Amino acid sequence: MVKRNLFHMVAGSLLPLIGLSITHQIIFWVAVGLAGAAILLETCRFTFPNLNRVLFTYFGVLFKEKERQSITAATYMLIASVGAFLFLEKSLAILSLLFLSVGDSSAALVGSRYGRARFFGKSLEGSLVLFAISALIGWLFLLTGQVSPYWPILVGAAVAATVELLPLPLDDNLTIPLFAGATMAALL
Fold first, then answer.
1. Which candidate among 2, 12, 33, 34 keeps its CA 20 to 30 Å from the CA of 115?
2. What pairs with residue 123 in β-bridges?
3. What domain range is 114 assigned to?
């Protein structure tokens, strides 16, 4: 669990962090390419069961058991990246994706270990950590002049935490950045 969440935190942060130093158009097309490759890999692993078996044998620590027969969190994250860079201003896309990669991974680590108050199978403590981490990331973006004012970022962080906690029918790797990003864009 810890290795998986740390991997998701680091790997999931790479695309948004790279986006800080390249143009919006280039990072969008990089996201499209990566999402396309992920969708192709998903298609191949469902078409060729031996490939799926090999992936889970060698990289199983990076997956949840339910992902053996479903789309992986990484693929949802890459699809969300495409949506974020397509519909949001670059700084909001990056911010909302970091809410997911750093905030959601931190929520899972804290919630699984210290979570006591449970709602819909998730811990309130984890959701509060997601909010706090997202608010901190937003504050760093404010300090570097990438976003202003701060209050819409706090609302976006609250939306991210709420979406993570609720039992929505879509994967939270898709919904967290898109809902939080859309909320911040609407308020700014």
1. 12
2. 118
3. 2-187
